[in-house]
Amino acid sequence: MELIFEKSRPGRRGVTLPAKDVPAACEVDGRYRRGRDAELPCVSEPGVVRHFTGLSKMNFGIDSHFYPLGSCTMKYNPKFTERIAGLEEFTSLHPLGPQLVRGAMLTQGALEVISNLGSVLCEITGMESFTTQPMAGAHGELTGVMLIAAYHRHKGNRKKYVLIPDSGHGTNPASAAIAGYKVRTIRSDTSGVMDLGEFKRSLDEDAAAVMLTCPNTLGVFNPHIKEIADLTHKAGALMYYDGANLNAILGKARPGDLGFDVVHLNLHKTFATPHGGGGPGAGPVGVKKDLIPFLPVPRVIRRTDGMFALDFEEPLSIGYISPFYGNFAVILKAYAYVLLLGRKGLIEVSESAVLNANYLKCRLRKYYDIPYDKDCLHEFVLSASRQSEKGVHATDIAKGLIDKGIHPPTVYFPLIVKEAMMIEPTETESKETLDRFVEVMIELAALAEKDPGVFKEFPRTTPVCRPDEVKAARDMDVCSLSG
Amino acid sequence: MNYIPHSEQDRQEMLKVIGIRSGNVDELFKGIPAELRALSFDLPSGKSEFEVERYLKSLAEKNATDLVTFVGGGFYDHYIPAAVDAVVSRSEFYTAYTPYQAEASQGTLQAIYEYQSCICRLTGMEVSNASLYDGGTALYEAAMMAIHITGRNKIIMDGGVNPIYRRMMYCYTTNLSIEFVETPVTHGQSDRNEIDKYLDDKTAAVILQNPNFFGAIDDHSDIAEKCHKLGALVIESVYPLSLGVLKTPQEMGADIATGEGQSLGIPLSFGGPYLGFMAARKEFIRRMPGRIVGATTDRAGRRSFILTLQTREQHIRREKATSNICSNEALCALRALVYMCLIGKEGIKEIAALCMNKAEYAKQKLEAIKGVEVKRSSPTFNEFIIKLPGDPNGLIGKLIEKGIAAGFPLGRYYEDMTDYMLIAVTEKRTRQEIAMFAEALEDALWS
Q: What are the pLDDT digits (tens) for A191-205?
């Protein structure tokens, strides 16, 4: 499709601005003025709307496609939460506006939403306090590791390393490194969980924390988790829980009970806020009591008179992670989601998510290799190694799925599985959808035997087929300045 | 439950396939040892949409929404055309994931490419990323980028940079070996002498803001020239709508431009989600954090878009990555793009002019009040500071009773500015509202 700039014609416009109604005039001195106009496109409103509607049709989304993307929890996003986040009483609130002036109710509702979501998340995870400031999962990880660093610094501990299993999300080591720690990678054992022996050998007084996803990226719950937590604490280190996979254990297990000290959650995963094509999300962080003093400011507190207020004065706080209180609109959607589902609904979420994953795994077992074939929770990892012997790789299977109108699983992750395809169906998919996915996967496995060459032509049903990555990296055409 | 489609029959059939004969779904969780089961899960029971809506609306009503606002501070009350909301409400955009599978995401990818193009056109820079969380994290990422590019570790931050961003920078750099210098706060343009005091051949970057937090506009070309002579980079944080008229970061010689994109069609929403943008000179593209969309061709030679230079990213580089950021704020970037397309080349100049003229009118009305001093030492865009006879907090309360959010009291961030207020005026403020504000302020002061 044409670029919007190619549709631009001088004289067209998409907005009429309010008339100038003040007598004052103010000209910018030439030395402060830009030399040439900013060449934004000139398009009418219908032109703009048609352009973007056209673009939208070139996307797969949850409302139109099955999206079993492992570790991303692409579940249906209830429409109701969009309506709530669009209420003007929330959207028009200025974060620097007056808040508590002469007892006026200026932002009390918004602060109450933040406070209430924090309480609910504490109960869901078994933690003791939450900050809603982090704006994404990786941002939550960074915040969590910074809290751990502040805790150790305050105690006078000299710590150097964060221990992370090789199956962990790539952001884990990146976040640890950016917070100033070195990373020790622990390999997985034959059952796919962190190798206990190697963990014990790597754990010493230099360890600041252990970062784990539980269940891990293979969908496996680590049976030694309590022992790991006890050993970690004995070594003076803290337990960090990457909440990317919380959708597997709602109401069944809580990171707090398992011995974790710091948790980040992805509201855009477990709590059904839309992914938006890559954000905005929200990555609130929960902690146990000992870490509360280090949480970012400002903190939302409830005063003795029942009013909510912002507390900027926490001497041990790590400071400002975000400009304000996090991605408020996302927080609001997640809160609405929890209210809709309630206790029973949330438990049902995990039960159905795990049911769907196990169902798919059982039905696909004959056709694809499963390198770590353990009891899985909400997701599992297939390998296309059998197919790759015929020259059909995980990415080819992915393109075959796209051809059939199904978004592929996460491919080539976790790194410990060759030709990995990580599948997370989520709870919002029906048996019919899962069955169709199974049929297509079986069809593709058969095709890999019969006619492996044809995969290179997939997908044929989409606007483009296999864009040239090498050319993109070489040309580095990342913006259009013509038209 | 509305969002889970299984009937009891579905469930039983599926359990049978899995090999669970008891019909009990909980058996799927036998991998979690009994002693590790949740100790509590005490949450209220679920409710209908109607009930939840009634409750959340009751909370919404505890917020003030009818205030005429003159509060800015880097976040502004601009008008958002209806078509912006309509476009981002298309669920093909908002329910999609990160566009890793290019064939299933050409809509998002082309939109980001167009967003990157608009950011480059606005800032004059050569390359842009797909966006970051917000203006503050964008500034921090730019500082880290400069540290990696130059191999130096000293950052100088001008006293006019948003104090919230200054605090964020402190928070982020605590655990890293970075020498972080802040020049003293000046209400007007950047204090060249103060920057000179610290600028040397160990400096990775000087961070500047235009217009600065106090609204002053500047031409930082001379500072950039000095920086470049010493091998230091210049990072310029800008207010995107002001670029309808103001000199661009590129024209001033900046190496990296960042900013808060909220003013481009994104609602205030009590602090987020917002949009951090980042643009730079082309030679630094491989050092840029976050996603970048590139144009290429597909098998059939058709124009296609794809996430490019991904080897920089943490899912591949893990602990060697220079940034841990993996999301962009794609939907906010889409908002900004649609907004920029709607206002277009002429509209952005007109909005900038409206903001400036209305701010000038506000200055005239406010300085006519006895005891109110408008600081006119530097030219401004749509925001300026006033000095009052005393602490403005009492006045702010009185003005709220008249339906006006008067401005931001600077004492909250600056101990020696307890008598100052920062006033922002956007195109949404009418002559009548500005006059009403002046009148109410005069009343509050003197009657």
A: 889 999 999 999 999
